[in-house]
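Data deposition worksheet. Section B asks for the primary sequence of the deposited chain exactly as it was used as input, without tags or linkers unless they were present during the calculation. Section C holds the resulting structure in token form. Section D is free text for depositor observations; keep each observation to a single sentence. Incomplete worksheets are returned to the depositor.
Section A, Depositor: J.P.
Section B:
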Amino acid sequence: MRNRPRLAVRRIWCSLGATVLVATGLLAASTPSALAVDCDTEFLGYHYSIETTGTVSEFNNRPDGCFEDPYFGWAGTNGTIIAPAHFPAMATTFYDHSLGFIESSFNSPGGWVQIGWYGGSVGDCSMSCARRASGLGNYLEVVTPTPPTYSISVLDFRGLAYNYASVYNVVYNAAGCWNVYYDNGTYLGNACGMPSSGFSAAASEVVNCHEQDSGCGSSSAVEMPLTYYGNSNPNVNAALRIKGSGGYEPWDSSLSVNYTVRYDERTTSPTYYLSAFNAWYYVKAFD
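Section C:
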């Protein structure tokens, strides 16, 4: 069956200094979890509850999905993700998706290394994508910009039980690549050719293709099921942690360099929330 072409969309960073450009043109049947820059770009179909590293401390609820003031100086992102208790509701698993991830994402020319759980379709099926119509999967997504376009690689590396807790890690190594781990130290692979540092993120993301193409899916909201990130003890590997020049540190409210930027969509319809048990090494995202 021929995949329905869809307009490319961008995850957007509002920063005068950043110059990332990702996912221009057309995408086929599924869209990557995208990171890009340009607050004037319409953010079609993507919705987030997310925390990232930034140059200021702020909590944004703006409706356009524009995350502000990134700080790209971290060399690793680590922490537990507890998968949801059920498969997320969505109109079409062939085009929509719901997922939860940690990632390291990079400044000009952009790109990211991202790992987590998903349901539905993730990736760009003209290059690489993965789909699950029922039951959750674990995925790895690597995007490498080659301006003015990009390349994407998506790996569905296993099925995932509901409520499954796994410690994930994306970390730069001395050989010039980013290593990826799951289940608290099981090596999955690496991604090379990226900068040696980036910003860290922990996030839930949904995509509703109907917002990009009225003939796709339906106007019903894609569910962002309850997902937990981190652990209540900031000093264990299960907590959300980020790696700086001094090694790993808890992703708490007093970082060694700069701050945490948080974003959700509690002021819009549909509503999506980010809430902290402990700021910001143990959080939850939900709708």
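Section D:
The radius of gyration is 17 Å.
The chain has no helices and 22 strands.
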